[in-house]
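aspartate--tRNA ligase: structure, please.
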Amino acid sequence: GRTWTGVKDLCAEMKDKRVLIRGAAQVIRPVSKKMAFLVLRQSMSTVQCVLVVSKDIVSPQMVRFATSLSKESIVDVEGVISVPNDPIKGTTQQVEIQVRKLYCVNRAVPNLPFNIEDASRSETEFKKAEESGEQLVRVGQDTRLNHRVLDLRTPANHAIFGIQSQVEKVFRQFLESEGFRGIHTPKLIAGSSEGGAAVFKLDYKGQPACLAQSPQLHKQMTICGGFGRVFEVGPVFRAEDSYTHRHLCEFVGLDVEMEIKEHYFEVCDIVDRLFVAMFNHLNKNCSKELESINRQYPFQPLKYLPETLRLTYDEGIQMLKEAGVEIEPMGDLNTEAEKKLGKLVSDKYNTDFYILTRYPLGIRPFYTMPCYDDPAYSNSFDVFIRGEEIISGAQRIHLPDLLTERAEKCGIDVNTISSYIDSFKYGAPPHGGFGVGLERVVMLFCGLNNIRKSSLFPRDPQRLTP
Ligand code: 4AD
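Here you go.
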């Protein structure tokens, strides 16, 4: 086969070299009958290709053919690298390709729903354009999502999903290095795993069933099976009724479950070291991606400490009270209060990432272990980035009688989870774990304003396609 060069690798050191590249035709600019420019894009990189009529190399027909291409068509170009004296505007690579051969591999339809350049602009660009009286096309979120494959071609989107892939990689690598085993639990289950009505019900060969709201029950059952430390990366289904910036009906869950020797803070220790390692990795290895996201959606880099701050729920409530926020005693924090607390913590402790522990038992799922010293509270925690929840976790009840009692109290039909409860009858160690929303981590690390931006093909109460 021939040797192909990646657009991102084209550089001035390759001057006069002959290269072969493939890309999507982002810009097609005729200059005259004898000259045309073509900007080809590959992932986050673009390069300018120049066609100039010259005897035996580039014919006028070839220039005509190039200018007749439709935007986004897939094109192969063979040519020689040149380095112009002036900087090239509008491309990432600062070299040009003097075209010798050009093939159209697949032609795109002439009328695209939107241009990739339009879909790649930042708010700042729009504001500048407005001031100077220039007209730019704004591409709205629904239009983007309706034509997601086109939208995915923008540099910011390549960067977002590059980051997502790295988050998953660090999650697996870190946990494997700490002795955790990757598992896959069933997604078709008999009853709700988190309680509440947010389940997709279905008919399982005549039996009522539902899509798993989390791997919760089965990941705990692997601990009953003697697997001391487990993790899972898999789909989670929530029949959410709320149409918000941070809820999806299907998301990717990063789950962890582990034996606890002495204290549920052992689980918080894993959260702490895992996420500090992850943030360090992203900042060190993904600077191109972060820059690219920043260009379209400007954000402040995440502030985090080498050792993650832990506050108790009561300390959080106290901070809110002192700031004049009214909170229902022992109640759940609403989105606004969480945001406000995030801001207070950020100002006081200089971190956008922290763990809130010791929640009231009444606002946690049935399987949560009550505090030994005060059963009004629980051995549980949530984790926040920029004042929004990315994780909830806890020690679980490993005593079958207490588990049954708590499930009944929380209105769960214990018959649907009897195999789960029975699992604890054969001697199960104390254990705990946590669940992370992958899309939330990426959204909040990158300061994005909507979870649909960090979900490839988002599923929300109003969207099942594409
Ligand atoms: O807080 P949740 O519901 O907790 C559980 O599922 C527990 N089984 C976890 C555990 O091990 N104790 O979900 C965990 C995380 C949330 O913190 C959030 O990041 C994400 O999953 N999440 C959602 N992400 C997108 N859309 C939704 N509808 C989400 N619901 C939860």
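Notes: The two ends are 36 Å apart (CA to CA).
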